[in-house]
Design a protein that fits this description.
Layout: E1 7-8, E2 15-16, E3 31-32, H1 44-51, E4 61-67, H2 70-82, E5 88-91, E6 106-111, H3 115-124, H4 139-165
Antiparallel strand pairs: 1-2, 1-3, 4-6, 5-6
Amino acid sequence: MSASEPLVCPSCATPHPLEDRFCRDCGMPLVYAGSLGVDAPVTERQEWARKIKPQLAEGELTKVAAGRNQAEAELIQGLLLEEGVPSMLKRSAGFDVPDMLAAGPRDVLVPRSGVEVARDVLMQADLLPSGDGGTGVDRPSRILLGLLSAFVLVALIAWFGTELLV
């Protein structure tokens, strides 16, 4: 085993360079081969990479959830990682706060191959609404409907007021 290839596949024992995370032959997460019988400490990044299922890491990134702030989005990200789904966080559009702050909504993005698993995980954790919450109307439509109702009510009051004066 050479020092340039410190990782091996636990299944087929093929050596790999440190940059690789999965075996090219069988897709298993790689483990540290060790030197002189002492294993090197596993970094947090390597530990996370080993949890990811390669079959769920293919395709374009797709939004599956949104967190109200950085902490909530990281909670969602951790739940997805426990099921082997890789994810990334992105600041939601339209929220003007300096990047250094954790405030503001975050979108949780996963690769296309992991979307179904991610939605199942989020539904089980009650973090993803099933459908539209049973109302049948999405939020912009509700706002428009409320404004239209208010306009009609004001128009009716004005009409009745002019009818009473005449």
